[in-house]
Specification:
The complex is a heterodimer of chains A (about 110) and B (about 120). Chain A has strands at about 10, 20-25, 30-35, 45, 60-65, 70-75, 85-90, 95, 100-105. Chain A is mainly β and about 110 residues long. The mean pLDDT of chain B is about 95. Classes of the chains: A mainly beta (about 110), B mainly beta (about 120).
Chain lengths: ~110, ~120
């Protein structure tokens, strides 16, 4: 079965850039969605089709996807961005999630 | 306003059965694929099952043969029948919608908690 791998945690200082990788076999051939999840809340889409932001998502969230790695970048990270982030792709008829990355804003 | 509201969770003994429901409103339910995703306490998101707008279904290997997804387009309700429950099925269960293959799960419910314990 298809697998997506994320680092368990990323730390970033306020105002700096957080980079979250998501790796999978030939992931660049698939569309990747990124979800943000805060404690006690349901996940929210922050990026879809690799680079697109839903309405209401700040421009500081951006993404890329090439080769075996997709990346979520948070520029000018704010305290409110502290959350768990999950990458997701489709594999055949199933949905696959990465293990999640906890972003801590120190 | 799009709303997905899960219900039916609770405390069950191993080997028991439970049926979860997800009531949808604010969109044309029959036009969307619907998913169940679960999250064990303190763990990550795990896909469980999907049902397309035409009724086609798929399941994660971990629940295949034990769980059944279904939908009632007349009532705008998604179901998950869970049989032969195990401790590892303990999780928050979310329903989510998606317009088509390859697109994001763009709206999620708030989840219903299932606890399997003796």
């Amino acid at each position: 079965s298809y697998e997506l791998t994320q680092p368990p945690s990323v730390s970033v200082s306020p105002g700096q850039t957080a980079t979250i990788p998501c790796s999978g076999d030939e992931l660049g051939d698939k569309y990747v969605t990124w979800y943000q999840q805060k404690p006690g809340q349901a996940p929210v889409v922050v990026l879809y089709q690799d680079t697109k932001r839903p309405s209401g998502i700040p421009e500081r969230f951006s993404g890329s996807n090439s080769g075996n790695t997709a990346t979520l970048t948070i520029s000018g990270t704010q305290a409110m961005d502290e959350a768990d982030y999950y990458c997701q792709a489709w594999d055949s008829s199933a949905v696959v999630f990465g293990g999640g990355t906890k972003v801590t804003v120190l | 306003e799009v709303q997905l509201v899960e219900s039916g969770g609770g405390l069950m003994q191993p080997g028991g059965s439970l049926r979860l429901s997800c009531a949808a409103s604010g969109f044309t339910f029959s036009h969307y694929w619907m998913h169940w995703v679960r999250q064990a306490p303190g763990k990550g998101l795990v896909w469980v099952s999907r049902i397309d707008s035409d009724g086609s279904r798929s399941y994660a290997d971990s629940v295949k043969g034990r769980f059944t997804i279904s939908r009632d387009n007349a009532k705008n309700i998604l179901y998950l029948q869970m049989n032969s429950l195990r401790g590892e099925d303990t999780a928050m269960y979310y329903c989510a919608r998606v317009k088509d293959y390859g697109l994001p799960l763009d709206y999620w419910g708030q989840g219903t908690l299932v606890t399997v314990s003796a």
